[in-house]
Amino acid sequence: MSTRVQTAQRITMPKEEPLPFWKVNVPREHWPAECPDFLKNISEKDQRIIGTPDAEYTLLTWPEVRELVSIDRVDKFHRKPSELRRYRAFTYRLVKEYGSIMNFIVNERLQWGSMQPKGKPFEFNEDIKILLNDWPYGIDPDIVHLVVWTKFELEDDEETGLCTAESRKEIDDYVQKIFATKVKELVWFKNWKSLKSVHAVEHFHVMLYKPDRDFLKEITNGDVPMTERFE
Description:
Number of strands: 4
Protein name: N-acetylglucosamine-induced protein 1
Mean pLDDT: 90
Organism: Didymella heteroderae
């Protein structure tokens, strides 16, 4: 009885080149021929994030969010890769249409005719507006990210770029008064100066865990974030 021996040949497959970052998370049929203008000259950090498949991105949990805020590492908050791509497209369009992000925020989102505060910090509601964050970070969907915009300045320490003890107390007192009575779990933070995307209008961030939707609608006046409106 004869035995037939077959020798398997090793086939070397051509190595697949990695996709350029500007094609990642884009359906093949919509791949641009070259890098879109809104993604040119962005930082290496943003290129790295946008070049990460959404499937490989892990959303931050509520305990992780609380930890980052408690150790003042808000620089670790990033947007989901596909959302960061959309954010870049959005801000690129804004600058063309409105001249700057600040003009859009003041005139369209805040609709403030004057930036002159009526009184001292947190004295008058007219000097404050609470909106949903237009482009929230990659966080658990149960976490709602709000931005509190103010006409008045909240003093920062010149050396550290962080809140002074006085401004931190002013913000915390306001957060406790407005949010803590309605939401069990929350955190707030004010971005370092180096991390702010909008420098000219004072603001700080509040994150609420599983807040009541009616309460949200009330304090934001039914606001809808730009991420839900932008195509």
